[in-house]
Design goal:
about 180 residues; mainly alpha
Length: about 180
């Protein structure tokens, strides 16, 4: 049985196999970020709170980058995707965070959603090729490589951590609260 909450998020399966559970939690976290960024205009995407320079627009662009890095570049050893391929990351390691101020809300939402869609395809390919034990094709500097299982758990953690930031930013912006 599929359960959808009041924000339109599909709850992760209550009793399923490991793959469906991990993918369910990742999609739930993705849907949480989409909810926190829904209905905002350009001013909402560049608003900050407290002493932080973090914005919801920067967060959305960062997560597009993270999706692309883990599921395309690391897992399948593909080249960086646009717009990230053109960035001099050594000169500007926080490019995605601050460059988001020059993007429209629709550009940011599309960039993130396209990255999520490509990630889903990449995960499906990896599951077919080796399941959750499939190792990333781009090894770390020490030669080790994380499994798809590790990458999925890391992405759930990454979204959950940043969704906490999104909660604070959205509440400071317009009082919207929840989870």
């Amino acid at each position: 049985m599929t359960i959808v909450d009041d924000q339109g998020r599909t709850e992760p399966p209550l009793a399923s196999d490991e793959t469906a559970t991990l993918l369910g939690f990742l999609d739930y976290q993705r849907a949480t970020l989409a909810w926190k960024c829904a209905g905002l205009d350009a001013a909402g995407f560049v608003a900050t709170t407290a002493a932080s320079s973090m914005t919801l627009g920067g967060l959305l662009k960062h997560m597009a980058y993270v999706e692309s890095e883990w599921f395309s570049r690391s897992l399948h050893a593909r080249d960086r995707e646009a717009p990230f391929a053109a960035v001099d990351w050594k000169a500007d390691p926080d490019w995605e965070w601050h460059s988001a101020a020059g993007d429209t809300p629709d550009q940011l939402r599309t960039l993130w959603q396209d990255a999520v869609d490509r990630s889903r395809v990449s995960v499906t390919e990896a599951l077919a090729a080796g399941g959750l034990d499939q190792l990333a094709r781009r090894p770390w500097p020490d030669g080790s490589a994380p499994s798809l299982r590790w990458i999925l758990c890391h992405m759930i953690e990454e979204y959950a951590r940043h969704n906490g930031h999104a909660d604070l930013l959205r509440e400071a912006l317009d009082g919207e609260t929840g989870e």
